[in-house]
Design goal:
The complex is a heterodimer.
Chain A lengths: L2 H24 L3 H28 L31 H14 L1 H4 L2 E6 L3 E6 L2 H19 L10 H10 L11 H19 L1 H6 L2 H22 L5 H12 L11 H16 L7 H4 L30 H14 L9
Antiparallel strand pairs in A: 1-2
Helix pairs in contact in A: 1-9, 1-11, 2-11, 5-7, 7-9, 9-11
Chain B lengths: L3 H15 L1 H4 L24 H22 L3 E3 L5 E3 L2 H8 L3 H12 L17
Antiparallel strand pairs in B: 1-2
Classes of the chains: A mainly alpha, B mainly alpha.
Protein name (chain A): Putative sulfite reductase-associated electron transfer protein DsrM
Keywords (chain A): Cell membrane, Electron transport, Membrane, Oxidoreductase, Transmembrane, Transmembrane helix, Transport
Main location (chain A): membrane
Chain lengths: ~325, ~120
């Protein structure tokens, strides 16, 4: 699919997903969209992610294939870089922590440029890293803030997070920065895809669809909080019902909420089957989570089978007489 | 499965963390709040649906009118004039903060900053 087709396809898909709960709730299917779909989506999320991880874990990784960019550990007087080229578990753990929490491999991103005729230079390109950090961390804050809908009494840490998130104290209800940053982050990641020609060329519907889905989820959330407000107490009755397995669907929650809930359910259900599962996959990347011990330790291929060998001694035993007859040198004469 | 010593604890950690809303509420009842409605009056300054979702916006607007413009009178959509005041307006009917305001605010985890300036009514409950 070419770029504009991919974008249109994803837009139409999200559009249909927005319309479904809109029509369904108007037809009185609140318990279907408020209870059944969320439960199914969450079940699919857990089963899917666990199955995916187990499937990955069933692939043998016989050789160490870390991508390295530092001096390997060798002789004691040669200084090695245990972070860029880890030789032990400590180095690997540190490398993984920095990768998972700070997206180090994106930070290293470089761009090739041509200048002054046919000269090439590599420039650091941090925008992807910055966009990714903004997007992922604001999404995390938004997700954690939603715990206020899933617990009574609410954990004080959630209130602390809300306090930090809304420290500007703008407007009523208080403006949360994470909501705006999330929208900005998704918008940036989308614009990046459509403005860089090479990136546009390799982008697929599976790249655009999650971006549009998350953008719609975030914007329905922002709309519900600041503009077309919904009755938060009824919403919490519904979410607490889901969390305590006593589902209820209170009357009079706006359909905007059901759109939000349905799209979140779609995101959860879609998660294990899409690129989004990198949340689990980052921990299982063999180019990151292996120590570079290819020379220090003997790694045996688990699917090695016993090889039938025919040594020279056996060969000579078999053909000795004929070799002597032909005048060929032999190691053992009778 | 390879590396099950790392994979299985990882999966347990993942499921444990992500099911927090389910196990943290185990065996807890979460009754919906029941704010006590005033017995003296039947109608508020706006209708119930509006007050449920937009009361904070209205109060914020009132605050600006009173504090910045020294205007204490608000003309409701029903043509009646109301006094813009928490103590002498809202709380004339909604007499108890604990039985009215706090009911939903505590449930939804909201702590409005009304009472940073206004004196909180002393209630013996």
């Amino acid at each position: 699919m070419n770029a504009s087709r991919s974008i249109i396809f994803s837009l139409v898909a999200v559009g249909i997903l927005v319309c479904l709960p809109l029509i369904g709730v108007a037809a009185g299917m609140t318990s279907f969209f408020g209870v059944i779909i969320p439960y199914l989506a969450v079940a699919l999320f857990f089963i899917g992610v666990v199955a995916r991880v187990v499937r990955w874990a069933r692939s043998p990784v016989p050789f160490r294939i870390p991508t390295t960019c530092g001096q390997q550990k060798s002789l004691p007087w040669i200084q090695s870089d245990n972070l860029e080229n880890p030789s032990d578990t400590k180095g690997v753990v540190l490398r993984m922590i920095l990768e998972v929490l700070l997206f180090r491999s994106l930070f290293r991103n470089a761009r090739m440029e041509f200048y002054e005729g046919p000269k090439i230079r590599y420039a650091s390109a941090k925008w992807l890293w910055l966009g990714a950090i903004v997007f992922h961390y604001s999404f995390l804050v938004v997700l954690l803030r939603h715990l206020r809908f899933f617990s009574t009494p609410i954990n004080p840490l959630v209130h602390l997070l809300e306090g930090v998130d809304g420290f500007l104290e703008v407007g009523v209800p208080r403006l949360y920065l994470s909501g705006l940053l999330l929208l900005a982050g998704v918008a940036f990641l989308f614009l990046r895809r459509v403005t860089i020609p090479q990136l546009k060329y390799i982008s697929l519907p599976s790249d655009y669809f999650p971006l549009f889905l998350i953008f719609t989820i975030a914007s329905t959330g922002v709309l519900m909080r600041y503009i077309y407000k919904v009755d938060v107490v009824s919403v919490k009755e519904l979410t607490m019902g889901l969390a305590t397995f006593h589902p209820v669907t209170p009357e009079g929650i706006g359909s905007l909420f059901y759109i939000h809930l349905f799209l979140v359910s779609v995101l959860f259900a879609y998660f294990p089957f899409s690129k989004l599962v990198h949340m689990a996959g980052v921990f299982l990347s063999p180019t990151r989570n292996l120590a570079n011990t290819n020379r220090m330790v003997r790694h045996i291929n688990p699917w090695n089978y016993p090889v039938k060998v025919h040594t020279y001694e056996e060969y000579e035993d078999e053909f000795r007489e004929k070799m002597i007859e032909a005048g060929l040198p032999v190691e053992k004469k009778e | 499965m390879y590396d099950s010593g790392k994979i299985i604890p990882g999966i347990i950690l993942f499921v444990g963390l992500f099911t927090f809303p389910f196990w943290s509420n185990m065996g807890k009842a979460a009754p919906a709040p029941k704010p006590e409605l005033p017995k003296t009056a039947k109608v508020c300054v706006m209708d119930t649906a509006f007050m449920k979702t937009e009361h904070m916006v209205l109060l914020n607007h009132w605050r600006d009118k009173v504090v910045r413009e020294a205007n204490r009178v608000w003309l409701g959509p029903d043509g009646k004039e109301y006094k813009m005041s928490i103590q002498n307006g809202c709380m004339q009917c909604h007499t108890s903060k604990a039985k009215f305001c706090d009911q939903c605010h505590n449930y939804a985890g909201v702590s409005p900053y009304c009472w940073q300036c206004h004196l909180e009514p002393k209630e013996n409950l």
